[in-house]
Amino acid sequence: MRTADYDYQLPGELIAQTPLANRGQSRLMVLHRKSGAIGHHRFSQLPDFVHPGDLLVLNDSRVLPARLYGRRAGSGGRVEMLLLRRLEAGLWEALVRPARRVRPGDVVELTGRDEGAPAAARCTVVGQGKRGIRTLRFDDEATVRTLGEVALPPYVHVPLAQPERYQTVYARNEGSVAAPTAGLHFTPEMLAALREKGARFAFVTLHIGLDTFRPVAAEDPRQHTIHREYGVVPEAAAREIQRTRAQGRRVICVGTTSVRVVEAAAGEDGTVRPLAGWVDLFILPGYRFRVTDAMLTNFHLPRSTLLMLVSAFAGRDHILRAYREAAAMKYRFYSFGDAMLIV
Predict the structure, then answer these.
(1) DSSP string covering 248-289, please?
(2) CB 69 within 8 A of CB 110
(3) Are 81 and 95 in contact (CB under 8 A)?
(4) Which residue, 165, 219, 259, 329, shows the most beta carbons closer than 10 Å to its own?
């Protein structure tokens, strides 16, 4: 197995820089993983591919405004912080610039972009890691919501006019730095249409960090250390998944994050139990899926753990051929791009 086997070329103009005006107007590629057959549709047609009794598993994590600005208490030096991972209430790992000037014991006064603004809150540097990573303890974590800005993925270069467009319509549990983007296509009307079709819903949580965009650098992906993300499978969701499987219906995971958290909650026999803890499941080809019967996802970066996950589900050759066809047909790629349903 080689990381280079999960590489592909993509013209830059196909990387979606802004969301569509209407969430539900994305294109939808349908890939049949057994045959490799491909169909081209609109996301509004999703109910046509959902059967009565199917269970859609959705990640209800809400994106925090993770980019913060402040100054070092005393010196007044400007500091920019990007929250990466919530360790516990009020305690975060963050990427800090300029890292060489921010050390454990320092206090940062949070001001927002206006460096002349009075301090609205403070955080203390309590730990130091590699590559500019610092551990920050906030006096009042709630101020992050008022002072922070949404941090878009590194390949998006156009400011977001409406920050709420980087949230799913069912987002409710704050903690992600990046959005579970497969869910961005859903509208309240689509959820209602799926219910009318007889589909059911289960909500899980996986708080996404920016490490999700980091390409695999190791030549052998099995040598890559997967990022940890905090996940929750509530008792009600575990019960719904078990009921769906007992009835012989499909579990359709919306997004790779939903896949990772429900598969992490599944035992060897496929029984899904409630989960609340760190998830570091790295799904590579050869993995035996215990829960997921179908998957709705976006088009992922080359050499990424997410591309490897969908390849494990549908087969690398099928996925790369589908990506080539999507590029030839000018699909929009990545976070604000189009969707793929793998059945």
Answers:
(1) T--EEEESHHHHHHHHHTB-TTS-B--EEEEE-----TT---
(2) yes
(3) yes
(4) 259
What is the DSSP code (8-state) at residue 105? T
Provide the Cα torsion 141, 182, 336, 195; round to 10°.
Answer: -100
Its pTM surpasses 0.85: yes
Token pair for 184: 């961005």
Distance CA 82, CA 93 (A): 9
Divide the 343 residues of the chain into consecutive groups of 10 and give the mean pLDDT of each group.
Answer: 96 97 95 97 98 98 93 92 87 92 94 84 94 93 84 92 94 93 98 98 93 87 90 98 97 98 96 96 96 98 96 98 98 98 98
- Residues 341 and 343: their CA atoms lie apart, in Å, by 6
User: Please, what's the b/e burial string for 242-256 (b: 16 or more CB within 10 A of its CB; e: otherwise)?
Assistant: bebbeeebbbbbbbb
Which residue is associated with the tokens 């939903």? 258
What DSSP designation does 161 have? S
DSSP code of residue 44? G
- Only one residue has tokens 């189009």, namely 338
For residues 94 and 80, give the distance between their C-alpha atoms in angstroms, rounded to a whole number. 10
